[in-house]
Amino acid sequence: LILTGIDIESSFQFGWTPLMCAASVADFAVVRLLLDRGANACFEIDKYNVLMAACTAHASEENILKTVELLLSRNADPNLTCRRQMTPLMYAARKGYPQVVALLVASGSDVNAQDENGYSALMWAAQHGHKSVIFTLLELGADKNLQTKDEKTAAELAKINNHSEIYSLLSLAANNLQGRYHETMKQEAIHKFLTAVSDHRVGSFSTFDNLEVFLHGIGLEHIIGLLKEGDTTLRQLLIMQKDELVQVSL
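Structure tokens predicted for Ankyrin repeat, SAM and basic leucine zipper domain-containing protein 1 (250 residues):
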């Protein structure tokens, strides 16, 4: 169709362009072809743009990640918002894509931006029970104490939606990762992700060590080694009784 001279920005159903349609299913090859032929990576309709469509695609996360990375390289803005003031990061967090979340933050997306109802990316992940996204966001500087317009925190949203493990995590964690120390950890996390991308190991990239993130978050990073010696997992830590916690110096 392209070779026959069809307009690269022609409108399909709902006014979507071919690029928007390809991005919405994370068809990386077609997205790249269309971009190389001059398609607008920043196209939007009713304030919903191509990057948002890619972040909500029903596809493997690896394909979504490649598609999002390509769009960002063609100047798609990760901080633009839709009519509800949601960013691509919020869409990716709501869908449960931790690698995409990490890439967006590494590309400048505001990790603590809030939509028209006061929801941040962390809140969307908590409401939908995406634990791996929550750990990634906490590592990258998400503030768990932000509140929605009806005064709900991420922990409370997790509780309301019966995500008990996430509720326990967010209730116990404290925002001790602040200032220069927090910024150093954030930059290390971003570097870890970008190194995986540059080494073409995106498919094998896994979210950060859950236990380590949690212990850093509550200021107990000094006992990481002790817990790992005993092969203690985060799940086990969260359900420990008082006498068991005393044994591990908590």
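Confidence is low (pLDDT under 50) at residues 174-181, 200-208.
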